[in-house]
Design goal:
The complex is a heterodimer of chains A (743) and B (64). Chain A contains 26 helices and 5 strands. By secondary structure, chain A is mostly helical. Chain A has a 3-stranded antiparallel sheet with strand order 1-2-5. Chain B contains 3 helices and no strands. Classes of the chains: A mainly alpha (743), B mainly alpha (64). Chains A and B meet through helix 2, helix 6, helix 7, helix 8 and helix 16 of A and helix 1, helix 2 and helix 3 of B.
Chain lengths: 743, 64
């Protein structure tokens, strides 16, 4: 059958044929738009393969550093954000839009508000992803996790997100179904919250078209970033997917949701609590304890609504478990909801301070994240794809057997991924803290611990490979399904608009039933629910100055150090190295004095990191001579045999571009760093003077290089780290320009 | 850290206020959910299924 035969007689996409059939109920004919759903579905599969493959390449580099082919653009630090952005925003993002565009039309009994906005959403979103895939390997990054894209792309992203939100809310306004189903509440909360998070966290002062500095510094920046980061998980990876669960699970099981009542409590409790939980990413850091405690308490409370939702999903299958044995769609859904339950039990456990003291910075977090990502997001996306493709193409799934095989392969891949990571995480956490009977660190050399973990990194890569093989099988199965069927670009439907129906008894009273018929009010209340937590945490942190105790000896970075810091950001060094020493004896013995909030007041952005594949660098300054850093960056294994750090040989040859230095100084001043007036004109001379001293130091170590190489700036930055608080107040008062260099 | 907390005025109030706020939201959502009538809950539960085959008798939404 030809594609056009599926189309309605009325050709214009948004034309809706009204067929009056009496005053009480005019049946209206209209068409659902399947083209946009298919476009997002294809993009989901394509980006899934790309994003997961990028992750696999990252995984390979963690036991075989040369897997970057000594090519700076695919080195771990730059590739990791490509992987995270591709799987989160490209794979899950497109999967989310696919599911939303299909379900919203049917739940509202209306075509999307605007076809144009739908396509702006599709091309804009995927254009942003392409821009990310180009700019992140080039080193254009803010360094903020899951918010790495630089300001011009962020602005486009905000515009595209607004287009999506208008399209969603517009469809609700023109809907024919009076009451808004629970899945759509979750979509609404996603649309609103992601917009707020993205804008608040993304505020920057531009330096150039591809560079900006966060308006927040240090502790405030960390809080805003992890308020964003955690809620990116909450409102991008969770709430829209809960919406998909509430729509597609009943569809696949052909059963209504277990308890609609429970879904109401689930929704309001979840969106209200989630927004508070961000500080659990910063436990035992320099963040004030009151914010840490709030984050911890609300994180623990999250178990209740999360498990309410999980049970609501699983109990929907009561009496239908026999279908699960046969139906791969249901298998994937059960796997996904179970993984959601496991991850949402583990997450609050990891947010308890004592547990977090062991798990933070370790691979335990990686295992936790991938239980959720591979399990909840991955398996649910696969289930929706397997459910949708036969419907879009008016045929049966090409091979149920292959889909079932995919399920078991995916499960096996997950096991091979997460189990080694759990073991690795607990192992490294305990080894970091282990003291000998003499009271010294049992494993004082960080590399000793890394070498224990490497075998688990190998197993993880095997797990990832297995999981990706499953995705390829799915892609083949879906492709054969599409070939066997005939795509239905539009789907004919009829419905009676609720506007032509008499008002039911009790409809006008204020209750949740009434609220479910008021999309704008529902949106407003959801907005209030998600705003409260963020405001209570962030506003006091910025307004109350006592939150960040100032340290007089802490001064702004010199021009050369600032340039070095920006290279550190470009290379993504914080993907492996934290800059936050927690107040534990095991950490102060290994790294030095624990980190103070006042040390980061000029850090735009903060660079605390979230993972220690390598050691913390907060007190690396003045620990080794300049020549050690030079040799280490050129070939890490020359100074640290067995190290899994990649070579940064390009830093030795690439010239330091200081044309943007005045703009950088100026932008830093605008965000509050007290560089002296007119320093822009003196900065280059200062930079050259400091670079010259480093070159002289290197000559002592028999290293000949030029002062205008990038590695000189990186060495300057590393040698400055954590040294300010060691300076005597008297010395700092003598610093003429208000800046002091480490060399 | 403790010294820092002592200087931060009203820290206890922030925590207590936050928990009270959650209890209020949770209670309100419970009241709203339990005030809903069974026919409405059943109808809403079946909303995604309207274009599919009608569910059998064992699959009615649980009026929890």
């Amino acid at each position: 059958m030809r594609e056009s035969e599926f189309m309605m007689k009325a050709a214009a996409p948004n034309t809706e044929n009204k067929q009056p059939q009496g005053l009480a109920g005019a049946v209206e004919g209209f068409k659902y738009d399947n083209r946009i759903v298919r476009a997002f579905a294809i993009a989901t599969v394509v980006w899934g393969v790309i994003g997961m493959s990028a992750g696999l390449l990252c995984a390979l580099q963690l036991f075989y550093p040369n897997a970057n082919f000594e090519f700076q653009f695919v080195t771990f630090g730059r590739l990791r954000p490509v992987h995270t952005n591709a799987v989160v925003f490209a794979f899950v993002g497109n999967g989310m839009f696919m599911g939303i565009y299909y379900s919203v039309q049917r739940l509202c009994k209306a075509r999307m508000f605007s076809d144009k906005l739908s396509w702006v959403n599709f091309w804009g979103w995927n254009g942003i992803i392409v821009a990310a895939a180009i700019t992140l390997p080039l080193g254009f990054t803010t360094s903020k996790e899951y918010a790495e894209l630089e300001w011009p792309i962020k602005i486009v992203l905000a515009i595209i997100w607004v287009a999506f939100t208008i399209n969603l809310l517009g469809t609700l306004v023109k809907r024919r179904e009076k009451h808004i189903y629970v899945a759509i509440w979750f979509y609404i909360s996603t649309a609103l919250t992601v917009a707020i998070l993205h804008i608040v966290n993304g505020l920057e002062v531009p330096v150039s078209f591809w560079k900006g500095y966060s308006i927040y510094a240090g502790v405030q920046d960390a809080l805003v970033q992890w308020w964003y980061g955690h809620n990116a998980v909450a409102f991008f990876l969770t709430t829209p997917y809960l919406g998909l669960m509430y729509y597609y699970l009943p569809k696949a099981a052909n059963r209504p949701i277990f308890s609609y009542r429970l879904s109401i409590i689930h929704f309001w409790a979840l969106i209200f609590i989630y927004i508070w939980a961000g500080p659990h990413h910063l436990l035992y850091t320099a963040l004030p304890d009151w914010a840490q405690s709030l984050g911890m308490v609300f994180s623990v409370m999250l178990v209740a609504p999360s498990w309410g939702g999980m049970l609501n999903g699983l109990l929907t299958l009561r009496g239908a478990w026999d279908k699960v044995r046969q139906d791969p769609v249901l298998k994937f859904m059960v796997g996904a909801v179970t993984a959601y339950g496991m991850a949402t039990l583990e997450g609050p456990a990891l947010a308890i301070k004592t547990v977090n003291s062991l798990s933070h910075y370790t691979d335990w977090t990686i295992a936790h994240v991938h239980t959720a990502a591979l399990g909840w997001n991955g398996l649910l996306t696969f289930s929706v794809l397997y459910w949708l493709f036969p419907r879009l193409y008016r045929t049966q799934l090409w091979s149920t057997k292959l889909a079932n095989t995919h399920f078991w392969i995916a499960l096996l891949g997950m096991m091979f991924y997460v189990i080694p990571m759990y073991i690795a995480g607990i192992t490294e956490g305990m080894m970091w803290k282990q003291f000998s009977t003499d009271g010294f660190l049992q494993y004082p050399n960080f590399l000793q611990i890394v070498l224990q973990i490497v075998p688990f990194y190998r197993l993880r890569a095997i797990g990832g490979t297995i999981y990706i093989i499953g995705v390829w099988l799915m892609a083949y199965n879906l492709w054969r399904t599409a070939r066997a069927g005939q795509f239905a670009p539009e789907e004919e439907a009829q419905a009676v608009s609720y506007r032509s129906q008499p008002v039911a008894q009790g409809e006008e009273a204020f209750n949740h039933r009434w609220l479910e018929s008021k999309p704008i009010l529902l949106t407003g209340l959801a907005l209030v629910a998600v705003l409260i937590g963020g405001m209570i945490e962030i506003i006091p942190m910025i307004v109350i100055k006592e939150n960040v105790k100032t340290i007089p000896s802490v001064k702004p970075y010199t021009a050369l150090e600032l340039m070095g810091r920006d290279i550190y950001i470009r290379e993504g060094c914080l993907a492996c190295h934290s800059q936050m020493i927690r107040p534990f004896r095991s950490e102060t013995e290994r790294y030095g004095e624990y980190s103070k909030a006042g040390e980061f007041v000029y850090d735009h952005p903060f660079l605390w990191g979230s993972k220690r594949i390598g050691p913390d660098l907060q007190r690396i300054g003045a620990k080794y001579p300049d020549a050690w850093h030079y040799n280490h960056l050129d070939d890490p294994r020359s100074t640290s045999p067995g190290s899994i750090m990649p070579r940064y040989s390009w830093l030795l040859t690439q010239e330091l571009d200081i044309t943007s230095l005045p703009a950088r100084i100026s932008a830093m001043r605008r965000v509050g760093v007290p560089y002296p007036a007119g320093y822009e004109s003196k900065a280059a001379a200062d930079l050259k003077q400091q670079a010259g001293k480093i070159v002289e130091n290197l000559q002592v170590g028999q290293i000949k290089t030029q002062p205008d190489r990038e590695i000189i700036a990186v060495i300057a930055y590393l040698q400055r780290l954590g040294t300010d608080i060691k300076l005597e107040p008297k010395a700092t008062a003598e610093a003429g320009s208000g800046l002091h260099a480490s060399n | 850290m403790n010294q820092l907390i002592e200087k931060l005025g009203g820290i206890e109030a922030i925590g207590i206020f936050s928990i009270c706020l959650f209890v209020a939201v949770f209670t309100a959502s419970m009241i709203l959910a339990f005030c809903l009538k069974k026919p409405f809950l059943k109808a809403m539960g079946k909303l995604p299924l309207e274009e599919e085959q009608a569910p059998d008798k064992t699959s009615e939404s649980n009026p929890l």
